[in-house]
Amino acid sequence: MAGEDFAVCATLRHATALAQRLHHAVAAEPFQTPSGPLLVTVSIGGAVTCH
Q: Is residue 48 exposed (0-12), middle (13-18) or buried (19+ Cβ within 10 Å)?
């Protein structure tokens, strides 16, 4: 994982809900730059294991 990556261990249902909340929270807060606000989003991926 790179510096901006992180991992979360959760059930599929909780991980999906968390990803949706995080995506909406980031999209709702423009990043302020000297040229004005910059709208950003995030891309969130997941993996499922059967253990």
A: exposed
Instruction: Please answer whether residues 23 and 41 qualify as being in contact, where contact means their C-beta atoms are separated by less than 8 angstroms.
Output: yes
Relative to beta strand 31-33, strand 36-38 is antiparallel
**Domain regions of the chain by residue span:** 1-51
Read off the pTM.
0.70
Q: How many helices (H) and strands (E) does the chain have?
A: 1, 2
Q: Is 41 helix (H, G, I), strand (E, B) or coil?
A: coil
Dist. CA 34–CA 17, nearest whole Å: 34
| Model confidence at 47: pLDDT above 60 | yes
Measured distance CA(31)–CA(16) in Å, rounded: 24
